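Appendix B, example 12.
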Amino acid sequence: MADIAAAAGVSPATVDRVLNRRKGVKDTTVSRVLDEARALGYLTDAEYRRIAQPRPANIVLLLPTGTNPYLRLLGDKARALSDGRSRDQAKIRCYFIESFDAEALAAALRRHAAWADGIAFMAIEHPIVREAVEEVSAAGKRVVTIVSDISSTSRVAYVGLDNQAAGRTAGYLMGRFAGGAKGSVALVAGSRRYRAHFEREVGFLSLVQEQFPQLSVVGVREGHDDRDENYRHTVSIIDQTPDLVGIYNVGGSSDGIARALREKGRASDVIFIGHGFTPDTRARLVDGTMDAVINSSPDAVLSAVLALLAGPDGTGDAGEVQPAVAMDIIFRENLPVAG
């Protein structure tokens, strides 16, 4: 390696970076180092061709902390995917950051952009987050939003459900399950700072008002995707709403709502619709506490992220193609095979 460095007129550290396909070396320098390494017999022709290919993309996934089982499942799958990849495939790192904290998210975007070629994150609708996205994008990084989008930015694409359509779907299911009964329907959201939750709420309200006027929607409670907060909100909703017909959980951590329904003896007569198919929602579908779960496959989300940020050859040159993420509606009678 010292001989290659001397022949190419660079430092041994630069040779090491080139041969290990690390960032921070100009293309012309990479070519010179590889040419000298082949000429000196350090690299075979096959090794030369492999190392000369564009470096695999570095990808960071940023998710909010908390007790949301769907986001935990998404993070677990991302880490498992990372562990199973070869050195010639895109590198993936997953980090959990403070939930509902726009400043923490903006700081994480800027911090991880130093290593990453592309960043996928669950967006918070806030000016400082939009500003961070613009800075990172201007620096040549590809940015993708997942699960919840953000407006007016240079992000490459959004990967996730059409959340307004998801809310309308939940409203339609609620009305049909109610079967003409009159009464109140409650909404529990994570936070309106997530555009996804706001859009789901809007879709739900509009559909119910259009097609099921016999149902009245009581005020939205924000549980911050925390199972204990959702539990307390649900206990309060049950106590204060004698004519409660159903609950739509706009966000995550449905297990807290289910626990309150069971403890209050309302699990069998209150319609309960939520998001995110995970072991906890599966169990609640099986025991009848939940009636339907609206889901976007975490595997499909990760596949779309890789296609957008790594490309088919793992180089980060994916163009602007956005793979679709389907909306799945899961009932007790169509449960996917476990595993």
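The longest strand covers residues 58-64. Residues 313-321 have pLDDT under 50 and may be disordered.
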